[in-house]
Amino acid sequence: MKHYDDTFRDSGYINNVEQIEGLTPKQKAELSEVTNTYRFRSSEYYLSLIDWNNPKDPIRRLIIPDNCELDQWGALDPSGEHNYTIMPGLEHKYHSTALLLVSNVCGGICRYCFRKRVFLTGSDDILKDIDAAIDYIALHPEITNVLLTGGDPLILSTRRLRLIIDRLAQIEHVRIIRIGSKMLAFNPFRVINDPELPKMIRETIEAGKQVYVMMHFNHAQEITDVAREAIKILQGAGAILCNQTPMIRGVNDDPLVLAELFRELSFMGVPPYYIFQCRPAKGNRAFSVPMEEGYQIFEAAKAMVSGLAKRARFVMSCTSGKIEIAGLTEDKVFFKYHRAAEDSNSSKFIVCQRNPQGYWFDDYEELELDSHEIDSTSDFTNWD
Known about the structure:
By secondary structure, the protein is α/β, with parallel strands linked by helices.
């Protein structure tokens, strides 16, 4: 566990690998082709977490560009978000949840990012017309949850964030406002140095809305003493914090590592929420773990921790919905819709032949169930 003085309290951001002191001139030159394709960005604080003497350091793996990203495997929109885009920056995929992409900047750019398209020159995916988005949400009473994402919402000033959140809070049927952010890992001083942020959260909750912060810690090495301080500030303001992470090759694809992350989160009162199958985005092949191997790692990690630390679900965020990987037998793999874009798929149970080389739902073929097997969707299609 690292402990910090005030060295990084005003942590700046680096957008060029030439500025990374831990890389040799040769390494910097070799990475230019990668960064010409997929941008690099990090905070100075986050780079300070890297042990440069360890070539397998997980933070290095997460943030430093790698030539493996030039593999053309994958798609720019692997979850088919364009299918549910109402207007630039507003998505409505699930009945009760709207998603606002409020920023095209992050505290750092994860090398496995599934929204690389947002950072490309000329991208038109970010919210530009807040009035129109607010009007849409106000006209759809089924929307009880709004997720602010991007990019990272906490890269915005609290003043700008409040302009959006205050307007959402005025919509009666919106009961939960979620902030999806990796800033607690990338630069926890964003929270520590800004008393206006917890004040805004507290006032939003007092107005009758619950605020969730969907954190993004991939590895326990990211949970430093200052990250813990930032988490306590948000919890003290009344926000409910959850954590989600993809399973990433070379970072957390080890039961011991994943179990440690689960434990540390539970010790802070933060439920592990989702473990995502790494989405097949452009450049992501080297970061992806075959799904069945990932499921076995996930279950082995859960076996090492208490019930409070094993609340995560292992899911794929596919075009048709969030599909949970629910189990394996010797020759079959079992899936279940955790959330479905179409109500008819809600809680649908799917049996497929095992495919050890499968990375995504598209790599599997559904088997016909016997007529006596229960249709798990029968009583749940209208549930929120």
